């Protein structure tokens, strides 16, 4: 049987030819079969929403190369009418922001998509009420969206997505604005739509735990579809997700290399490349416990001619202090990944606090309680690989009013680099040394 949706070599640019050009999808090919529950997973900005728009036929104008096939037919060959029909009855989309129309009733929001199909008002209302009943929100039919709680509004959004009875339901981060109870309800309902109604579910999320029902996971990063996994059981999914978080922090380089590089950039700014190379060598030795802390400090101090790095004593002592701190925090990170491997939903409260205290070690500015909490959140999100190093620096720099930390640009990038220095896997460090 033909896949219900197939993408072949899709490339898509935003602002093509302008300085702000973004290559948002890079040669993406994939297949989704009828009745499958699949998910796209990856950090913010990796192209998840864009790929959804492409596969629901909403970005056909922007696709620069590649094909979108629906049931084996290229949508470029669709007539205008066929494309409109596919968009309106082929797929239903649930958005994170709910996207409800504020000025009309809940019932009218849900029935509106049927109007495009020329269904009479009366029938629209009857069908709409049925959907509201299915989602347990019938009593609110005549209210305005703003009069409902977030969880209820999201159910209106789901009812609306079901309005034209589409065989494919797409959810773009449907849980982002919900508490965990409501998030669970949404996931249960999606599972029901998949198992009972046989609908194809396409879930987009950056929260690993919400992948639990997906049987095909597309991992994305920087517009690239990195790989596809088809976990058979719950345990497989948990493992797949934590493995991903462990390895994906920087897929283009050996993690050990990344760490030694980012550390030597951090610590030896302004030194010659020979000194930096030798420093990286000893650093890897120390990070993999091939030499102990005292020896490390001694070779940092030893002159370059005698085989050392040739730093002055004070600098050697300082760097050695920093490295010992990093090694301790790397140990914390290893524990975190071991916990996440067992249970991707593990809370990381104490670990994040520990890392935060270390991060703030040499910071001279004042950090209030609210900033500390926010910092813990950012650290947790980075540990879970929900956000990138770049995002971390951005949020640190963002004002407190905008839910950032309000650090200077310079302090933000230094602190983000410091955090990165503890995130690479130690197995990989050992491997990098043997290479
Ligand atoms: P995700 O949903 O994974 O967060 P998106 O698909 O929204 O990612 O975005 C992918 C990339 O394309 C990002 O770098 C984003 O900034 C960029 N982008 C998304 N929409 C637009 C747009 N309308 N104009 C310009 N750039 C965009
Ligand atoms: Mg998105």
Automatic annotation (TrEMBL):
GO MF term set: ATP binding; ATP hydrolysis activity; transmembrane transporter activity
Q: Which domain of life is it from?
A: Bacteria
Q: SUPFAM superfamilies of this UniProt entry?
A: P-loop containing nucleoside triphosphate hydrolases
PROSITE patterns cross-referenced by the UniProt entry: ABC_TRANSPORTER_1, ABC_TRANSPORTER_2
Specify whether GTP-binding is a keyword of the entry.
Answer: no
Residues in domain ABC transporter? 5-247
What keyword terms does UniProt attach to this protein?
A: ATP-binding, Nucleotide-binding, Transport
Q: What cellular-component terms does GO give this entry?
A: plasma membrane
The name under which this protein is listed is ABC transporter related protein
Q: What is the lineage of its organism?
A: Bacteria, Candidatus Wolfeibacteriota
